[in-house]
Fold each of these.
Amino acid sequence: MLPGGELRLNAPVAIPDGTAFGDRALRRCCENGQHMPVPGELTLVAPRRAKPPRHLADLAPAERRAAVEELGHKGFRAAQLSTHYFTHHSDDPTTWTDFPAKHREALAAALFPRLLTPVRDIECDAGTTRKTLWRLFDGALVESVLMRYPDRVTVCVSSQAGCGMNCPFCATGQAGLTRNMSTAEIVDQVVAASRALDRGEVAGGPGRVSNIVFMGMGEPLANYNATAAAVARLIDPTPDGLGLSRRSVTVSTVGLVPGIAKLTNSGLGVTLAVSLHAPDDELRDTLVPINTRYPVGEVVAAAHEYFVKTGRRVSIEYAMIRDINDQAWRADELARVLAFAGPGAWVHVNLIPLNPTPGSQWTASRSRDEKAFVRRLETAGVPVTVRDTRGREIDGACGQLAAADLLDPEEQLS
Ligand code: SAH
């Protein structure tokens, strides 16, 4: 987990004492006038805000050609620009020696506006984990995290500034949704991480990004079009995109059933992670408020359909919250619910020790309860791993990012 204690993005609103499951808190607004949701309140439509400027990474390859021609250049220049960005991770026109010097600045201004401005980096794990706080063009703040392991480098990206899903254990959810991110704002987090690795800025020497998890701020399937286009940029072969393998890209969702269905039929073939956190509607309604729209049975059925259509094993995320969702009977119920959707190893459960957020009364499960939970799932034949405990004791204001550190998408492939 990440030592995120000092870094708060949207300072979470403490849920008042005794109201963890839903007394009505007063509506509050933070200083910039952003609406702060009351417990259980969902924001399904992103606030309308000014759009980020257009960037090359917003465009599919054919659109890039058209854009370059509109700017008065030959279409083949688009592929050169794509190579600079996606292969060399460069948006700096002074390095574009294959372009006449007189055209470089204008092209850069038109197709490479600055989208992400670093505010702060925090490193831990001897420099192999690096969390970056970014300011977007309109002042909104988001985070991304680069995590280097012996065999891979994972980047955890944000897909929205804030989040409208209001899960009460998640720091981001408490502060509401500022806006959707654009395709290029999502992609540029990965390109920035790639650039840092190229330059040897990350402990372990130069390297390459191998895995992406959409587990930063936001609900990626609530920003479906930008998410799907960003995935396309990540998996398109170079120079059109970054050339990552589709199975090494994980899209994590709170369980938006229509979004899961779209992803199923998209042909993108990424790894799907579903944040279940409870096997029964009564509890899930409170932990994951969107459950009141898309209950457990529908979410698990949609996840199973994803497996059937794509052949990709689905990951079920389950934050272990002491005395809330970690009872042995709930492990049995989880196994039952998953088996009801379909037989065999179509699914893998990732147990995530809760990373407590400021103001919340909840904490991670006791070790013995966690072990018992694992045993019950194993006995029922459900593949399960616990993402353990780097820095569990360190207060993490941004639980969902810390959780990404705990999920290893490769685990699901074996
Ligand atoms: N909105 C998406 C992706 C972002 S969160 C989703 O819900 O899946 C990524 C994961 O981190 C989710 O499983 C989320 O439930 C989990 N998470 C959020 N806050 C957490 C916390 N405090 N401790 C542990 N996991 C947390």
Amino acid sequence: MAPITPQPGIMEIALYQGGQSHVEGVSDVLKLSSNENPFGPSPKAKQAIAEAVAEVHRYPNTDHAPLRAAIGEVHGLDPERIICGVGSDEVLQFLCQAYAGPGDEVVHTEHGFAMYPILAHAVGATPVVARERERVTDVDALLAACTERTKLVFIANPNNPTGTMIGGNEIARLADGLPEGAILVLDGAYAEFVEGYDGGVSLVDARDNVFMTRTFSKLYGLGGLRIGWGYGPKEIIDVLSRIRQPFNLSEIQMAAAIAAVRDRDYAEFCRAENTRMRAWLARELAALGVPSDTSLANFVLARFADVAEAEAVDMHLKSRGVIVRRVASYGLPNCLRITVGDEAGCQRVVDGIRSFQEARR
Ligand code: PMP
């Protein structure tokens, strides 16, 4: 009998390692490992979820028109150029399914989001890594990594797990230098944390080869519901819409997202608190001799002396119920990514690192 084999590329995939949420034997756990909003979603989103539950026997709306209208209204975008997915992960998946396949290349940055190579392999394409410069996206390296086989170039801005960001001129230079037929995908999962940043809308509007993605998982505190969206040229939206499953989002997801995106006061509160506590956390870490790059996202990448120290700090924090993220699989084995919590959460992680240092003396 012929062996049963998966499609090419599938066995190349390294399983995604999600943020841990439990520690054996510890009840008071503080999870700062998945860049979640410490305040949760807007109360209006919770109310909308409760109301939408009454209609779960009905199939959801298939075209997401009310959600696209709400996003379009808030961000000043044409709803016809928006597509919604099960998290922005699904929108990234649509892009790979639609534009990349065996023999094609998908370029991403050295310390880029783990889903990029997974999604590329899943469609049989080859992920290609472009080096960064001191944990910052390097446009020259990205351009050098492109070939005539490049179909997609993914950059997250701000990037996960580094938190660093590059400016609009650099992104425009990247878009302009791409090979014919390649699409630049600006992953804006953390864009909302950056004051005055539109995630690249003006660049998308000015080019036909730039697409951007956003999420409700981070600033809006709805990671558990799985809602994301993309904005791009009409032609690309038309292509992606053909492969999107008609019922990919439930009414619960859509109702929650509509209420969340409309609650500007709450979003602004969360953004301002993140900015305030991120600065505090980076300052406290520096005072403890732990450097971090300037982060514009809702996490800080703390750098330790070596791998052994990062591991030891991670274990110590875990023993106190504080879960942060090891990022060895991102090529940063001496770093820990710490989500910006609320005031008490930030204090607890700093106290944990201080007590580690004291115990070592
Ligand atoms: N892009 C980046 C850079 C991320 O960090 C994440 C979440 N970890 C995502 C995309 C996907 O987020 P979601 O699918 O929850 O929208």
